[in-house]
Write a structure and sequence with these properties.
The structure holds 2 protein chains of 2 kinds.
Chain A lengths: L11 E4 L3 H10 L5 E8 L2 E8 L2 E7 L5 H10 L3 H14 L3 H7 L5 H19 L5 E6 L13 H12 L1 H14 L5 E6 L8 E6 L11 H7 L6 E5 L11 E7 L2 E7 L3 H16 L1
Antiparallel strand pairs in A: 1-5, 2-3, 2-5, 3-4, 6-7, 6-10, 8-9, 9-10
Helix pairs in contact in A: 1-6, 2-5, 5-6, 6-7
Chain B lengths: L1 H11 L4 E8 L4 E7 L5 H9 L1 H4 L17 E5 L3 E8 L2 E11 L4 H18 L1
Antiparallel strand pairs in B: 1-2, 1-5, 3-4, 4-5
The chains are: A alpha+beta, B alpha+beta.
Amino acid sequence: MSVLELPHAAARDVRLGTVAELCAFVDDLERDAAGELVVEAGEVRGSIYIEHARICWAAAAGLSRRLTELLVERAGLDAGSMEQLYRACRDARVPLGEYLVGRGVVSAGDLRAALAQHTVESLRRLTGPQRSGHFLRRRRAGYSPRFTFGTAELLARSGAATRSEAARLAEAEMVACFSPEGWAAAFVRSVDRATPEPIALYGEAPAEAQASSALDLVAAFSAGEPLVAVRLPPERARAGRESALAFRLGELVIAGEAGAHCAARILNRRARHRASRG
Amino acid sequence: MALEATMRDALDARPDVEALACMDGSAGLLLGMYVRGDVPHELVELAALSAPDLCRSPELDDAASAGPGSPDAFVASDAWVHAFARVPNRPELVVMGLAARGANVALLRSWLGEVADRFGALA
């Protein structure tokens, strides 16, 4: 797959202090924009390819073999077998991930998870204080949305990289409480951050959902473990998403939309937890 | 007077409910409030005043637009359960019931819906 530079494309400087700053830049791009964000800051070098407001790949110097390592882990292969597969896919001129999925060595889900982890690790390497990049517009390469990532997912995965225990707790809680048709996002607020940090997502959030109210939500839920459940008006509700909910669980604030019984499940879990503590 | 009598009768029928209030969201007026026992009046007043906001779920696609609002909502805090229900045929009115945390939330919401229906019949 070739990525062609548009003639006379002007570079645009982009601040890359944090992954959130990068995601804000991607969100602000026109929906049909495509381009490469090139980072060159001393030893930190790499690029990020963006298309249709999604990050298709990110590569950072020093992490070139990391994706292969992640795929080896997920495929349960030894280094020798992986080397053979790597040579075979290079001879066939097929991307490694696609080749491994085609041969049944890894599942599509494993490939996506490995790509996501690699992308997040690369983004975290490429962003940092005083960091910036140049955005060069390119022709769209037509990446499959299946193996590219929206900013909400990457931001949550990046948050989970530093708050892994809280992210695991949030994921378990969301799976236990929210219906499969629902969606939710979990946030934590660190003392060193001005804004709440997303650390986990569940289900597909509506495309128009904004995280801008998260700050108010987390601030309002500063004490105790309250739960707010609002039945959605009929014109906004749909099967499995009849209620909007927000609740606090320890340092987590979880908000989303779910079925009518979600609030009851949350209260029931709380009651059982209290009972188990005596 | 009919509103007051309805609120008093409703509260008398549910000993586990500590307070009942009715709020006119369009005027910002607390139309009535009945409190049982030692529950602080300020707590009930604050909860009732938040009813219009709680019963208006945010419009994701257009934050400025105000839709018809949600039919009901509840807040469970460490000490209390606040249930809210919009009055049928009088969407500007919201009734609020307050019970201790251990109350049965489903029963409270169901009962408050019936109270809201009675208020609607008064209109």
